[in-house]
């Protein structure tokens, strides 16, 4: 969908006359909508393959957080002219699409800067607060099978054969086998509905206070598209993965988790984890690296025009995976204890 079509959707569905600017996303059409008075919104036209139940899960999570944790910096959902949170349109190709309008959160995308220790601890605190706020949340679609839920890594086994580089395939097969050895323990972990994608691309920070001697502030948690009922430890492991060094290739890294521990320390200030969860988290980080590589390589083959965006985090993962594979299972289990 181009900007002109998006402008018509904003006007016809929400009564808003503004200028849409496309935002880079993996599978939907997302625009920052700027009104003449300066107000900004996010207009999301969903991929036709996304079900209404999936979108309703995301909307329901955000509205639950608005009611029960209004101080968390997450987007607000706005109704259309008919009072609906999810609208339906027919695009220029005659395809039915679902539309949502949300608040635009300001800040610097964490993916574009190097976070400091204070920011990492604050990210951990917010992840824990988000978990606690969603502890009693339920939704019919929360139990969906989601490829990005590391609990579902066994379902990605067929993708191993399609990895063209033999060395990369062997590393992924080894990591996959280690995960399978631990599957009974992973299946027994505590579960609830969680964000499941606390990556640097989904966190915004405001460093304005630093200039005045104050603390860094996380100004936004975005993209609840992977929200699902999964293990608490998996949610934490995804956040830790996204704090691993990106330049580990070609240099010795004594402790790959050094900076991730700062995030974990902030998390544990707010919410606890069991020893079993802490012992499994390093293995789950490795499992997420395997899943990310398999899914990204597959999606890049399926959508070559968007391969740059899809593969943006894949390259760094090979050195990270090698670091974990160089350590035995018992050593990995003790990394965070």
From TrEMBL:
Residues 28-268 form the Aminoglycoside phosphotransferase domain. It is found in: Cytoplasm. One of its GO terms (molecular function) is hydroxylysine kinase activity. Its main location: cytoplasm. Gene3D superfamilies: 3.90.1200.10. The keyword Nucleotide-binding does not apply. It catalyses: (5R)-5-hydroxy-L-lysine + GTP = (5R)-5-phosphooxy-L-lysine + GDP + H(+). InterPro entries: Aminoglycoside_PTrfase, Kinase-like_dom_sf, Pseudomonas-type_ThrB. GO terms for cellular component: cytoplasm. It is an enzyme of class 2 (transferase). The keyword Cytoplasm applies. Keywords: Cytoplasm, Kinase, Transferase. Its EC number is 2.7.1.81. Catalyzes the GTP-dependent phosphorylation of 5-hydroxy-L-lysine. PANTHER family: AMINOGLYCOSIDE PHOSPHOTRANSFERASE DOMAIN-CONTAINING PROTEIN-RELATED, HYDROXYLYSINE KINASE. This is Hydroxylysine kinase. It comes from Paenirhodobacter populi. The lineage of its organism: Bacteria, Pseudomonadati, Pseudomonadota, Alphaproteobacteria, Rhodobacterales.
């Amino acid at each position: 969908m181009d900007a002109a079509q998006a402008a018509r959707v904003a006007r016809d569905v929400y009564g808003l006359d503004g200028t849409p600017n496309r935002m880079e996303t993996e599978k939907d059409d997302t625009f920052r909508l700027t009104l003449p008075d300066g107000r900004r919104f996010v207009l999301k036209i969903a991929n036709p393959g996304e079900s209404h139940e999936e979108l309703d899960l995301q909307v329901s999570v955000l509205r639950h957080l608005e009611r029960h944790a209004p101080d968390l910096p997450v987007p607000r959902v706005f109704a259309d002219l008919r009072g609906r949170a999810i609208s339906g349109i027919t695009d220029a190709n005659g395809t039915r699409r679902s539309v949502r309008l949300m608040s635009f959160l300001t800040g610097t995308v964490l993916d574009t800067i190097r976070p400091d220790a204070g920011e990492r601890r604050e990210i951990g605190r917010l992840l824990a607060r988000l978990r606690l706020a969603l502890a009693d949340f339920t939704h019919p679609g929360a139990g969906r099978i989601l490829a990005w839920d590391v609990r579902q890594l066994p379902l990605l086994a067929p993708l191993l054969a399609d990895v063209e580089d033999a060395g990369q395939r062997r590393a992924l097969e080894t990591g996959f086998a280690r995960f399978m050895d631990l599957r009974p323990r992973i299946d027994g972990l505590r579960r609830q509905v969680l964000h499941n994608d606390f990556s640097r691309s989904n966190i915004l920070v405001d460093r304005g206070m630093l200039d005045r001697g104050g603390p860094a502030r996380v100004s936004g948690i975005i993209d609840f598209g992977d929200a699902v009922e999964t293990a608490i430890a998996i949610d934490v492991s995804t956040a830790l993965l996204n704090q691993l060094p990106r330049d580990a290739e070609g240099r010795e890294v004594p402790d790959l988790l050094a900076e991730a521990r700062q995030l974990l320390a902030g998390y544990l200030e707010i919410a606890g984890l069991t020893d079993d969860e802490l012992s499994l988290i390093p293995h789950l980080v490795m499992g997420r690296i395997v899943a990310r590589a398999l899914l990204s390589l597959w999606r890049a083959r399926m959508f070559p025009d968007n391969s740059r965006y899809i593969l943006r985090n894949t390259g760094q993962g090979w050195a990270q995976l090698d670091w974990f594979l160089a350590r035995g299972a018992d050593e990995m289990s003790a990394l965070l204890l």
